[in-house]
Every structure is written in structure tokens, then in C-alpha cells.
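Sequence only, no structure available. Ideas?
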Amino acid sequence: MKEKKKPDNVVFNQSTQKYDASLKPYATNVGAPAIKATENITWKNKNILKANKQIEAKYLELQAEYKKMMEELEYNNLVYNAKFNFEPIIGNTYHLYRDKKEQAFLSIIPPNECNFNFIGSFYLNSELIWKKTDNNIKAIK
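Reply:
I predicted one. C-alpha cells follow.
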């Protein structure tokens, strides 16, 4: 048997077989106020600008962190490729120099007590990574 369809202006839920106009989140009768779309272009433009600034700032932070990591890698490789005849102790600071043949070597002698070509001072941390400890680093060849 064919069910009788309710008119379009009657809000009837077929699945629950109930009238549920009062449960709808929108107006359901002809006399209800019109639903108007709000103007959101200003909101979008303002927030696009904010979002872009935030993403750009995050990008610049990541870029600076990347540069710092690459510099740290370069110094770490420089020290590990240097000559040294001792086992460095974690937590100590060592000094990197160049000899007459322009080869890097690591020493415990501080730069104010010798006449070697000083490159920089480095600290061996607990992760066995050499960290630069001063700003007197000369150009790395």
C-alpha cells in the first residue's frame, strides 16, 4: 500500500514517523524570519593575513634552527676529523688548532698558553656532540 505523502509545508520525519518542526535548527514555516548569509569576506581576509604571518614566522624559526643545526654539524665534523692522540672526556672543553701543514688538531692547551693557529674551543657534551664554546672561530677551510 502506498503511503500518503505529507505536503511540503508540513515538517514530518519519515524515519521516526513524527512531526519534528520544533527540533530543527532552522526555521520551518513561511512566517519565520529569512535566513541571510552573513558577510564573511572581511573575516576571511583578516584571518588569512594572520595565518600567513604565523606560518611565515614558523618557517623562519625552522629555517634558523636548520642553519644552527648545519653549523653544529660542520663544527662536529671538523673536530672529529681533527688529529688527536687522547680520548676526550665528556664535559671537558678542548681547543682546536691548525698546524703548519694546515691540518686541524685537538689539544687541551688553551689558546692564551700557546702560539698555534687557533680555530676555536669546543665542549664535548653527553651525546658525544662537540659544541662551540666561544665566538673566536676563524674561517673553516
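The chain has a mean pLDDT of 85.
Hope that gets you unstuck.
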